[in-house]
Write a structure and sequence with these properties.
- It is a single chain.
- By secondary structure, the chain is mostly helical.
- About 70% of the residues lie in helices and about 5% in strands.
- The longest helix is centred in the N-terminal third of the chain and has 48 residues, at about 1-50.
- The termini are far apart.
Length: about 200
């Protein structure tokens, strides 16, 4: 019976650590996917400016965009689930409890941006050739790049809040006050009563 209780207690203590690692892994995959897509887009722009046709680059970026949307949805659901399960951990500290709520709001906002980008918007060519009077130039779709930038900003804010929430709380230091340090008020002199005065006169 003691072994079973010890095992359950160990599992209860290890569960938050495992969930924190899972949350960090999902966050790293999501933000890393956004950064990788940004690098691929920059590489495609370089190919377009170099005179290489943009069709192969658009095919590669289209596949990368679809994979990014799938992974971002999964990572976002994992992060929201972990934050919901561990939401009671910061109830004793009001500021950290509010910070955890803000972190959940930012994560949910990033997930909504991802859903909007991959579900609501119609697919366009990520690299587009624009013709001007002096020639032509290649530019990335501004809407998609703006959505990527919004996701990156929200995820960086989530990282900052997560790092702050996992900092050890400052313990309050109580300085004991010794009895010798406490000032004592001098006692007021006692006045002789009438009875004591009569006794002295009788003597």
């Amino acid at each position: 019976m003691d072994a079973v209780c010890y095992t359950l207690d160990s599992m209860k203590r290890a569960l938050p650590i495992v969930l924190d690692v899972l949350h960090a892994l999902a966050l790293a995959l999501w933000l890393g996917g956004v950064a990788l897509f940004w690098l691929l887009t920059s590489s495609g722009l370089a190919q377009g400016h170099g005179g290489v046709p943009t069709e192969p680059a658009n095919a590669l970026l289209g596949a990368a965009w679809g994979s990014l949307g799938l992974w971002a949805e999964r990572c976002g659901l994992v992060m929201v689930g972990v934050q919901f399960v561990l939401r009671r951990r910061f109830q004793r500290n009001r500021s950290r409890f509010i910070g955890d709520g803000v972190r959940q709001l930012l994560t949910f906002s990033a997930l909504l941006v991802t859903e909007y980008a991959h579900r609501s918007l119609q697919y366009r060519s990520i690299l587009q050739t624009h013709t001007v009077p002096g020639g032509s130039f290649v530019a990335a779709d501004s809407t998609l790049m703006s959505l990527c930038a919004i996701q990156a900003a929200l995820l960086i804010a989530v990282i900052a809040l997560t790092a702050w929430l996992h900092q050890p709380a400052a313990a309050s230091i109580v300085v004991p006050v010794s009895n010798a340090a406490t000032p004592t008020m001098p006692s007021a002199p006692t006045r002789p009563t009438r009875a004591s005065g009569k006794r002295r006169a009788a003597k």
